């Protein structure tokens, strides 16, 4: 049996409760953000955004609900009075983002090698 899969056993369950539970479950898997990418400071914002869009597209083409793995969050900086967009991501989403990076350098290569070993 695959891990992290929700199987519904009874069709008579309150649908809204099931949706709330599923949302909470998938939200709990999204523990990572762009700051968890160890090499992100060396990569341009454009490359990160491109990798994000490619990763979401991979999910859609594979028949996976990307909203379960990528959740947009807004981060407010009280000092600079700015609002920035970040993404909460599951472990699979982070791994997918790394593999979609078009800029390959030593740090990225080391990270991909670690992913292959997982």
Read across the widest sheet, the strand sequence of neighbours is: 1-2
How many helices does DSSP assign? 4
Q: How would you spell out the order of helices and strands?
A: HHEEHH
Q: Based on helices, strands and strand pairing, what is the structural class?
A: alpha+beta
End-to-end distance: 19 Å
Radius of gyration: 17 Å
Helix percent band: 40-55%
**Uncertain spans, ≥5 residues at pLDDT below 50?**
none
Task: Tell me the strand percentage band.
Answer: 5-15%
Give me the count of strands.
2
pLDDT average, as an integer? Answer: 81
Shape: globular
Give the biggest beta sheet: 2 strands, antiparallel
Task: Write a compact overview of the structure shown.
It contains 4 helices and 2 strands; from the N terminus they run H-H-E-E-H-H.
